[in-house]
C-alpha cells in the first residue's frame, strides 16, 4: 500500500504524516509513506488546500488533518 | 432594536467582561482604572480575554461554515462565469472559502489551470484575506455594526474593482510559464459528516490560536501603550486629523506587516479611542490583512514582477481611497 501526504511541508502536513504512520502501524499494514511537496504534483490530484491524504492513488482527505483513528477507517 | 443593542453590548462587546475586569483591577490590585497603570492593565486583561473568546468561538463557527466551501468547490462554482458577474462571485466566495497565505499558490495555479480569467482569480485573492464572516462579527464587537457592514461592503467593492482592472489590462502573459503547463484536475469533492466538520472546526481553532497567540499579545501590548502612555497630541500629529497624509502613512506601515485581524484589532481600537479617524484605522487594518510580505513573496512565485507590482499598487491605492472616504463620511457611521 502506498500512502501519499500532499503538502509543501507545513506543520499540518507533518502531523498528518505522523497520524498516517501511526494508523498503518497499529493496523499492521505495510505501507510506504511518500511525501509529495511539489505544487505541480499536488495539483495533479486536484487538491488545492493542503494537507491531502492519498491512499493507493485515491484522494481520501483534503484540507484537514484527520486523526489516526479516522485514517484507520480509510485504509 | 433594544434587544439587538443588548446582544451587541453583552455578547459581542462583552461589557460584562469589561466591568468584571474593572472590578478585578480596582478591588484586587488596588489600582484605579482612571489612572495610567490601572487603565492599561484593564485594557490589557480585558482585550486579551475578549480576543481569545471571540477567536475561539468565531473561528469554530466560521470553519464549520467554510467546510462546505473547499477551494476545489469554489473553483468549480466559478467556472464558466464571465465578466463582472465572475468578479462579484469570486469576491463573495472569497469571504467563505477558507484561506491562508500558505494556500494562495495552489489556489492561484488551480484557478488558472481551470481556465478562470486572471481578474476573477484576483478578485478572489483580494477578498479572501480581507473580508470574512469573522472580520464582520469582530468589527461589530469593536466598532459597532454600521462600521462593520461598511467595511465588508467596501472590501468587496475593492475586490471586484481590483479584479476588473486586472482583467482589462493585457496581463495574461505575466503568469510564470510553468503555471500554464499544469493541467486542470477536478478532485472529487469529499463529503464530510457533521462529526468531521466539528472536528475540522476544533482543529482550526487550535491551529489558529497556536499561530496567532503571540501576535495577539503583542497587539494588545501595543494597544495598551497607545491607550494610556503615548500622549494624545503625539498621535494626533502623526496619524490624526492634523496630518493630511495619515491614511497613506497607516497604509504604508500596514502593508508589510504580517498579522491577522485579531492581532491588529487592539491597536486599531486604541488608536480609534485616541481620536484617530475611522478611515485611517480601517486603512491600517485592511493593509495588514490584505497584503503582507509573506503573501507577496508567495505570489511572486506564480506571477511575474510587473503583474505583482500592479496587484500591490491597485490594492494599496484602493485602501488609501477607502481610508479617505471613511474619514470624510465618518459622521454617517459613528
SSE blueprint:
The complex is a heterodimer of chains A (75) and B (334).
Chain A: E1 2-6, H1 11-26, E2 32-36, H2 39-43, E3 52-55, E4 58-62, H3 68-74
Parallel strand pairs in A: 1-2
Antiparallel strand pairs in A: 1-3, 3-4
Helix pairs in contact in A: 1-3
Chain B: H1 2-12, H2 15-28, H3 36-66, H4 71-78, H5 83-96, H6 104-113, H7 118-130, H8 133-143, H9 145-168, H10 177-181, H11 194-228, H12 232-239, H13 246-254, H14 261-273, H15 278-290, H16 293-299, H17 305-328
Helix pairs in contact in B: 1-8, 2-3, 3-8, 3-11, 5-7, 5-9, 7-9, 8-9, 8-14, 9-17, 11-14, 13-15, 13-17, 14-15, 15-17
Give a short overview.
The complex is a heterodimer of chains A (75) and B (334). With 75 residues, chain A is an alpha+beta fold.
Architecture overview:
- The complex is a heterodimer of chains A (about 80) and B (about 325).
- Chain A is an alpha+beta fold and about 80 residues long.
- Chain A has one domain (about 1-75): 3-Layer(aba) Sandwich (Glutaredoxin), CATH 3.40.30.10.
- Chain A is built from three helices and four strands; from the N terminus they run E-H-E-H-E-E-H.
- Chain A has helices at about 10-25, 40-45, 70-75, and strands at about 1-5, 30-35, 50-55, 60.
- Chain A has a four-stranded mixed sheet.
- In chain A, helix 1 (about 10-25) packs across helix 3.
- The longest helix of chain A has 16 residues, at about 10-25.
- Chain A starts with a strand and ends with a helix.
- Chain B has about 325 residues and is mainly α.
- Chain B has one domain.
- Helix content of chain B is about 75%, strand content about 0%.
- Chain B is built from 17 helices and no strands.
- Chain B has helices at about 1-10, 15-30, 35-65, 70-80, 85-95, 105-115, 120-130, 135-145, 145-170, 175-180, 195-230, 230-240, 245-255, 260-275, 280-290, 295-300, 305-330.
- In chain B, helix 7 packs antiparallel against helix 9.
- Chain B is globular, with a radius of gyration of 21 Å.
- The model of chain B has no long low-confidence stretch (mean pLDDT about 85).
- The interface of A and B includes residues 43, 44, 65 and 66 of A.
